[in-house]
Amino acid sequence: MALKPFLLNEWRQLARVNRSDRPWEMPVAAALASGLPIFIGAAYGELGLGLAGSLGGLVFLHLPATRLAHRMAWLMACAFGMGCSYALGLLGHLVPPLVVPLLMLITVLVTMVCRFYAAPPPGSLFFVMAAAIGAYSPVHGRDAILQVGAVALGTVLAVAIAFFYSLHIVSRHGVPAPSAPAQPGFDHVVVDSVMIGGFVGLSLVAAHALQLDRPYWVPVSCLAIIQGASLRAAWTRQVQRTLGTALGLLVFLGIVQLPLGPWTVAAVVTALTLVIETLVVRHYGLAAVFITPLALLLAEAGQGFVAAPQPLMQARLMDTVVGSTLGLVGAACLHSPRIRAAVGAGLRRLLPEGPPR
């Protein structure tokens, strides 16, 4: 029967473990960039600001494997983008009708930049995640300004950690060989980015239409899937993310049985980041098991979920299913030559005509 070879092939795709070329110091430095802001916040009795700083610390994961000057220039640009994304997300929170168009705009612009400069994964994911969390953060006025400042300081700390990490890595392994310069085309940079932004916005509209409790996880899940290099990769990641999220909720349920004070939250976030960055290049599904509790802690630890975690877990699973499904539909459209050609033709008509010859 044809079904058996198909299922065996699917299992091989889902269970395949990749080799990792990351030095062991990279996950350690990433864990420090995410965990240290929470330890600082715990020391000053400001867990919420520490979590915001930890969100900014995720910018460390955009550190490229290039020469030192380029590493730091690119990471500082990413730090600026992370702070702006979160601030614009908070603006959407203050003016709710702007949430969907702002998230679409941020997704399109950041994806364009990442594709133009051939940025490796995670690409635009964390920028959109920061904007989505900001858009649904329960803060107003002065507290909103403090949150933006905490995210910005978290990115500064991550850049500092990246600098010393890069000095160590370059001195140990030498300067990496330069890669071939990117040759981005209009379709790859503009058409793909507009389509991705459109589906991210559509996913948020769907989340509101379904009246989901925490709609910000839907566009993040959608973007994580639609960014796949191929439709095959998007399908594999969709299955891995859904299964990984379901198992990750069990890990989260175990974590909330701990006495989750500020210091415990800081230690758990640091440990989870270390595990994720060790696993993610090897197997995305295994990493998703730990990404789920990490994401829930970063977004919700300051909002008193420990007494009743079950509603939060149900909301997270529903958000992931809805977002991943729309992301897979978006990936099918993104990799359809007919749809891409139609969208590309429409976008080219918007371009200004060149000067007369």
TrEMBL record:
The chain crosses the membrane at residues 28-61, 73-92, 98-118, 123-139, 145-168, 189-210, 216-235, 247-272, 284-308. One of its GO terms (cellular component) is membrane. It is found in: Membrane. It holds the Pfam family FUSC_2. It is a multi-pass membrane protein. It comes from the Bacteria. Keywords: Membrane, Transmembrane, Transmembrane helix. This is FUSC family protein. It comes from Hydrogenophaga borbori.
